[in-house]
Amino acid sequence: MKKLLFIFTLSLGLIVNSNAQRGNNAEAPNRTPEALAERMSTRMAEALELSDTQKKEIYDIQLQQIQDRMANRDEMSQERKASMAKHQEKIAEVLTPEQQQKWEEMRQEEQGRRGNMRDSRKEHPEGPSNRGRRQGRNGGPHSTSPN
């Protein structure tokens, strides 16, 4: 009986802990560049005992870095889209009109599947499920480890 009670208590603790780590989207921090820079500079100020002047300077540096990173992400997205369009044009040149039509249908189906995955993520805001994915040794979906 004691073993059963111990296992139950341990299981309950693990469940509560995993739910606490997952969190709730309503409690998720604001993801604006300003909010991120504020959170980072506050952490540094507490850990390093920064003066108010130092904290402000760190905030400005962090904010600039976050804004630059976001701008680069947008540029990379545009470059990726342009590259993909050029890639698709090259493929279309090789295919016959019938093959092009089939290929277009295949692409539409794939976009529909991706749209369905996006919709399911909206329904489950805690993040994508790893069901069906192979778990690596370190816990990541495809983690590789020499051992």
Description:
- It is a single chain.
- The two termini are 39 Å apart.
- This protein has a domain of 92 residues.
- Helices cover 73% and strands 0% of the residues.
- It has 147 residues and is an all-alpha fold.
Keywords:
147 residues; mainly alpha; 0% strand; flat
Tell me roughly what share of residues is in helical segments: over 70%
Q: State the secondary-structure class.
A: mainly alpha
Which radius of gyration do the C-alpha atoms yield?
A: 24 Å
Strand content: under 5%
**Bulk shape:** flat
Order of helices and strands: HHHH
Number-wise, the strands total 0
What do the pLDDT scores average to? 77
Largest sheet: none
What ranges have pLDDT less than 50 throughout 5 or more consecutive residues?
none
Q: What's the tally of helices?
A: 4
First and last CA, distance: 39 Å
Q: Can I get a quick summary?
A:
With 147 residues, the chain is mainly alpha-helical. It has four helices and no strands.
